[in-house]
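Deoxyribose-phosphate aldolase (Pseudaquabacterium rugosum), 263 aa
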Amino acid sequence: MNASACPDLTDPVTLARLALSCLDLTSLGDDDDAARIDALIARAAAAPLPPAALCVWPRFVGQVRARVRPGVAVAAVANFPAGSTDIARVLDEVRTIVAAGGDEVDLVLPWRALREGRADEAAALVRAVRAACPGRGLKLILESGELGAGEVLDAACRIGLDAGVDWLKTSTGKVAVGATPQAADVMLAAIAAHPRGAAVGFKASGGVRTLADVAVYAQRVQAVLGADALGPRRLRFGASGLLDAIEAVLGGDAAAVAPTAGY
């Protein structure tokens, strides 16, 4: 996609192609095994366009690295989903990801510590992880559904931005409330206002299932960060089911852009 022009986000095919290019195709089930990860890799290989990344548990990074489609990043989660303050344990996970050839780390912020007024503990963990994975993309999962869309979420954004993360991500998808437009507005405003903002992206995750959902967030990113941000370097979607909707549209079913209740 030519990022210098404003894409028509009302066009289903344009929206589907954008969504796929920015998709972190994800498998984070508690019962994931090698066969399921092989199926994920095969699904990505058969997609009409390469997704941005495959996102898995740290133990599967080597398996994905060996077979992933060229041009697709290998991502894995750390401190997931609980978001503890156990720096030693989290750094072990991050080192496992890096050693196995991971390109990106999706790190859960210790959001409970932040919510309880222990912002220094949360920030220390993020800084330690940033130092442990130089040259790798780092996405900070804020768990926005638990922090709300106010001052605490803004403080979470600033922790990540100050520590040098590459994306702010809404949710693990493991709590009742995932991505919301209200949280996205807070996160995008924080990115735009920060001195590093031009180098930082946004990832919507948790409840992003349809291309109508994608349009909600893409429109906000375009309005706040500009049309140049509509690409995988600064926009990601974390989902396991979104590929079905994308493939339906690219296969000729424009009706697959279904509205989502509340959006």
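The two ends are 26 Å apart (CA to CA). Strands lie at 23-26, 53-56, 73-78, 104-108, 137-141, 167-169, 201-205, 235-239. ok done for today
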